[in-house]
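Practice problem: predict the structure.
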Amino acid sequence: MEKISITRVTPEQFGYQDRGIVKWLGMMLSDHSEALKKEEMNEQLIEVKAKEAMSEEAIAKVLYQAFVTDSPVLIQANVMRNGHYYKDLECKVSGYMEEQIHLFLKDGRVTSCALEEIRNVTLMNTLDWFNKRKQ
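Answer:
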């Protein structure tokens, strides 16, 4: 019979400062969740430079080409927050109906937008979409 070894690990070994509370795991999880939310907010507030504003016709042509070839695109929304644009949206055009363009985001979510909500759109390299570039 094989002997099993048990290794005991305390939160202090991972750098967690004890607050004197018995239920440390719940506190550690809430701190972790809070840190993730802050990191996500900071990522959204990265200063993004304005790309050249495109005409609706030019945007429609690029989106149509991306739809027909199933190519990914980078979309800069025509929306500002605190004087800065949001990060480019990495997505594929999954279809359109009436005045709504339906998008499949790289993280798996699905959303839609109107043509006038787009400031700039460019075709994205397929290798970047699938994270196949050597790091």
